[in-house]
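Homework help board

Subject: predicted structure for assignment chain

Our instructor gave us this sequence and asked us to write out the predicted structure in token form, then describe one feature. I got the tokens but I'm not sure how to describe them. Can anyone check?
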Amino acid sequence: MKRAFDIAASLAGLVALSPVLLAIAAAVRLDSPGPAVHWSRRVGRNNRVFRMPKFRTMRIDTPDVATHLLDRPEQWITPLGRFLRRTSLDELPQLWSVLTGEMSLVGPRPALFNQDDLVALRTEAGVERLRPGVTGWAQINGRDELPIPEKVRLDREYLERMSLAFDLRILVATVLAAFSGRGVSH
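My token output:
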């Protein structure tokens, strides 16, 4: 049921939002040099690395690490990138990953390929068997502000409570959080 919902919702979202996606892609290209979409290496289901699309919000010469690990992250984020991150519009290309089955609409956010501490804790908690999500229980409970052990605790709680009703609750809360920009540190 979850996979069927993911396919239907991501396909509908890609079709309905195609003018918005094209406009954002054009704006990213005009804002700074480089491609509109950045393909980030992420850890997915069963700890398999996959390439996740996001609208590019950082300069093309940015080191490939989590934003919070950068020295002065604000120097790497493009002017449009600040807005895209605050509103979570940079995440919209991930609907493609949901459609192809690499991701789900709701699940633990995929770790970067080099976030070994997060991957190890998730594996220990049994969370690695879930498809990563565009949004998740941890995202609506703190997002960038959460320490890694707390993210993993919330990811485990999601695993234990997972249902279509819980996913819908998380999706509604995500839309509200995206409009407020709450929990985004960069």
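Reply (TA_rk): Your tokens look well-formed. For the description, you could write something like this. The chain has a mean pLDDT of 91. That's the kind of observation they're looking for.
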